[in-house]
Amino acid sequence: MVSILSNGNLAPGEYFTGKVLLNLAVTPEDNLVSVVSKVTFEPKARTNWHMHPYGQILIVTEGAGYYQEKDKPAQLIKTGDVVKIPADADHWHGAAHNSGMTHIALVPPGKNSTIWGAPVTDSVYNAVNVPESKPSPALNITEKATGNRETLWPGYQSAVNITDPELAELFDNFAFDEVISHDTMDPQTRIMLILAATIASQSVTAYTMMLNAALNTGVSPVAIKEIVYQAVPYTGMAKVTDFIHATNEVFTQRGIPQATERQSTTTRETRQEAGLVKQMEIFSSSIDTAYKNSPKDLLHIQQYLTANCFGDYLTRNGLDVKTREMITLSFLVTLGGTEPQIKGHIQGNANVGNDRQTLINLLTQLLPYIGYPRILNAITCLNEILPPIKTKEIMNTAKNSEAVPKDVL
């Protein structure tokens, strides 16, 4: 089976300029409705001049680029555009100067012949004169936001800067300046928490972006795989499958082995006992209460939680328990409708050393990616389990302390 989500293999350099990935999802041998291929261009990458004797249709699925027929001006093409290429039209297409582009190409069944011509020279490509092809001087993104984004994705220019510059300003200034400036959470932890949120949000595109950011900022491949694996007991394998494939694709593109070193610490014989130890480490005596209060016909669910969720997954190496608890909370907050579990894992975080301020920082960093409703619901849970110190309590503490200056009182 071939997945259209796969970026495919490097396209032959004799027909393309720059880095281009080709995924031939449906071939002539399949004898189906049409030949279907997915083509991904890095910024400035493009095809040679070429013709299709039977025509072709392009559907742009991501980014922005150009399409040009011989002796005609180039056109900007962007996400959602459909380009109908006439039979025998001499043309080229590729990514814009400041954006990558992905398109799906379709041709009639059994008629996939392409007549290739000369490369599109730099002078021809750079002569493309569409306003959106150049960085907009009107973008008002702060220096700090620009620097933080550059740390995550060096040299990358988002297509949103071209297609939706106002949104780019609003989001970048908030997510990459205001929110990051809120606290001193290290970049690796921040990106790992956001990775967890993108899985629970079911956004493969955002996950892939953040996966590259994680690798760019020094998050290890082992830690990344552990986040994906840990998502299984909290979000379900149906939600995680696409992220396993997306992770392996990025690893392959970057020369990282898909299979990391084995991190399991338990066996079929030891997982139940080890899982119970891990549960007690995180939740203390409340586990005894959960077992005692479980109806007999549901006791197997408690046993599964112990052996599978904790024994199989939470006992693994690759991430420490404090990080794992933060990642679990990120899953739960993003999923929504999980308030009882959110409360339990807020207490679990506190039990392993993640205090109220640490969890406030976690929720703050997730805010741009999962929105206010989920975060506000989680804050309600946080205030119930780890309530803030009220002003009156602060004043009483201060009055009883000789070390506090009088002007603070």
Automatic annotation (TrEMBL):
Residues in coiled coil: none
Listed GO MF terms: peroxiredoxin activity
InterPro entries: 4CMD/NDH-1_regulator, AhpD-like, CMD-like, Cupin_2, HNL-like_cupin, RmlC-like_jellyroll, RmlC_Cupin_sf
Domain of life where this protein originates: Bacteria
Location of the Carboxymuconolactone decarboxylase-like domain: 165-249, 301-383
Residue span(s) of domain Cupin type-2: 39-99
The protein, known as: Cupin domain-containing protein
Species the sequence originates in: Deminuibacter soli
Taxonomic lineage: Bacteria, Pseudomonadati, Bacteroidota, Chitinophagia, Chitinophagales
